[in-house]
Amino acid sequence: MQTTVIPNFFLYGEAPRLVDDRFLHMEALDDRSRPSDWIIRAHAHANLNHLFHITSGGGVMRAETEDLAIEAPCLLLMPAGIVHGFAFEAETVGTVLTLSDAYLRELVRREREFAPVFEAPAMIPIADQRFMSFSLDRLSRELAWMAPGRSAAIEALLVGILVEALRLTRDDRGRSVAAPGPQALLVARFRALIEERYRSHAGVDDYARACHVSPKRLRAACQRIAGAAPARLIQSRLMLEARRLLLYSDMTIAETAYYLGFDDPAYFSRLFAREAGVSPRTFRREAGSAR
Q1: Is 253 helix (H, G, I), strand (E, B) or coil?
Q2: CA 5/CA 3 separation, integer angstroms
Q3: How far apart are CA 196 and CA 218, in angstroms?
Q4: Alpha-carbon distance 232 to 149, whole Å?
Q5: Cis peptide before 230 (omega within 30 of 0)
Q6: What integer is the mean pLDDT of 173-194?
Q7: What is the Cα–Cα distance from 81 to 232, expressed in whole angstroms?
Q8: What is the pTM of this model?
Q9: Which domains can be identified in the chain, with CATH numbers?
Q10: Most buried of 233, 245, 265, 274, CB within 10 angstroms?
């Protein structure tokens, strides 16, 4: 069986490695984009989140199977684990801020309102980019030197950047942010377990036991928070991975089925067709041609 060709990088082009719990990195957009002729091919980062501040230029950001137009000035938000790529216009100018998932979770524990910032890929227009430009410039300087109070200055600047991103995100999405309740926390645990186990085809009862709740309670929480039954969330994650592999890997359809834990490739093809509305072969041809 072949393996997936979706690269899982540390930073783009670098082999995966463990990161410090408070890993933070900044670089100019063209550091990696210019050498690759402004094309960043599809890849993912297991535990790194990106915030791009694009000050001029544009292009297209692909997140999973969706394309988002990039129009400067804007922020691009890319959560950890999302397969993504870019086709930037030549000479696009911007800054890329990368922070580890562990650091983000630490900040969210202290300030729950940060949770929505990286909940989904997004392109957020910026009417006035002076604050973001100033803060990122100062953060870049603090990261590059050793001076008294460096750690405190870095975190203060990072928190200010996340607050600005939160407010821009909330304004753009037209929603308020509330601290998650018990059901939301349960669904978050359930989703994390799905991420670990979706290829095992474990059932709802198995997940409920792992979450230390009854299946009934898990179903109620999923319906209330996600608007879907637990089985639907499990299957949706499985089908998301199927779409990723069909679009970004060189596996055959049968190899994809076996990799995802199906014993029968024909059953996988029927299930995929029912979920996606087209066969795996048609999806690969049509979605691939749009890349």
Answers
A1: helix
A2: 6
A3: 18
A4: 49
A5: no
A6: 70
A7: 20
A8: 0.70
A9: 24-173 (2.60.120.280), 182-289 (1.10.10.60)
A10: 245
